[in-house]
Amino acid sequence: MKCSRWLLSAFLVLMTTCWLTLSSRGEDKPTKDTATLADSRYELRKDHDPNGIGKFFLGREIAHVMGFGPMGQGAEWLERAVREKEEKLSLLIKSLDLKPGMVIADIGAGSGVISVLMAEKVLPDGKVIAVDVQQEMLDRLRDNLKKLKISNVEPLKGTQKTTQLKPSSVDLAIMVDVYHELEFPYEMLLDISKSLKSGGRLVFVEYRKEDPEVPIKLVHKMTEEQVKKEAASAEFGLKWSKTIGALPWQHVIVFEKQPATTGE
Ligand SMILES: C[S@@+](CC[C@H](N)C(=O)[O-])C[C@H]1O[C@@H](n2cnc3c(N)ncnc32)[C@H](O)[C@@H]1O
Asked: Using one digit for the tens of pLDDT, what is the confidence trace for 140-191?
């Protein structure tokens, strides 16, 4: 009895360690697509941060995706009670200036913590489209919505390169603690910018790399300068609008979609 309990504990510790090391998701490892690097925008380096995937975009290493975890540890971390105290999510939501009727895309929604907070602000006729690539996260999101009786959040399964959002359909797209772990940041930014209406906003919420006091692993943090550099490609049609520095750990970096210019 004692022995089987010991074996069970050892197994759980082993599973958790593997999950923490590999972020538990097959897709975390560079895919064949990544490895062949048909797209020369990215660079692969052998010498890199163990918390990153060894793939670099404009000099920045992409982080491992935070997996759901074999026992749901990833989702539990996102839903932790102390998160409001640490990250002041209520202040984040206030700073977004959400209005009834808006269509919001929460990209990398995870188990839906941020989607749920935004959903009531856009009632009665607005909605949040919660996009994620992990089915376990979307399943947990659905359960959470059911428990909370929220009907204006729509889960949507994306892919590593696309959100599956309709073109020019979104007033505000937001990525909270997501962008640094997108395996194809260029392709995703192109896709997201296409989904924005003219004048729509794209909001990056990233842990401040400029601040060594923010207790998050380096590849999971980003500087404001790097975010601006990566969002600057002309084809995205994004213009930096403001950076909100009111949160304890994260900066909120806001871009606006410019009206399409017609060719000559
Ligand atoms: C650290 S979690 C953040 C979840 C949520 N935004 C929050 O703050 O509670 C990052 C999420 O991004 C998702 N993700 C990673 N790459 C993605 C992609 N290409 N498209 C959509 N979601 C993605 C992951 O599956 C994960 O659920």
From this structure: 999 999 999 999 999 999 999 999 999 999 999 999 999 999 999 999 999 9
DSSP code for 223:
-
Element (H, E) at 198: strand 196-208
Nearest residue CA, atom 12 of ligand 1?
A: 108
Topology (CATH) of 73-257:
Rossmann fold (3.40.50)
> CB neighbours (10 Å) of residue 142?
15
29: three-class secondary structure by DSSP: coil
- Of 68, 133, 161, 219, the residue with max ligand 1 atoms within 8 A of its CB, to mutate for a pocket test, comes to 133
Single pTM value for the model: 0.88
| Rounded distance between C-alpha atoms, residue 43 and residue 89, angstroms | 34
Of 107, 111, 119, 110, give the one whose Cα is nearest residue 149.
119
DSSP string covering 118-152, please?
HHGGGTTT-EEEEEES-HHHHHHHHHHHHHHT--S
How far is the C-alpha of 207 from the C-alpha of 179, rounded, in Å?
11
Structure tokens at 70: 């074999």
SS3 of residue 230 by DSSP: helix
105 pocket-lining for ligand 1 (C-beta < 6 Å): no
Q: Give yes or no for residue 171 CB within 6 A of ligand 1.
A: no
pLDDT value at residue 260: 83
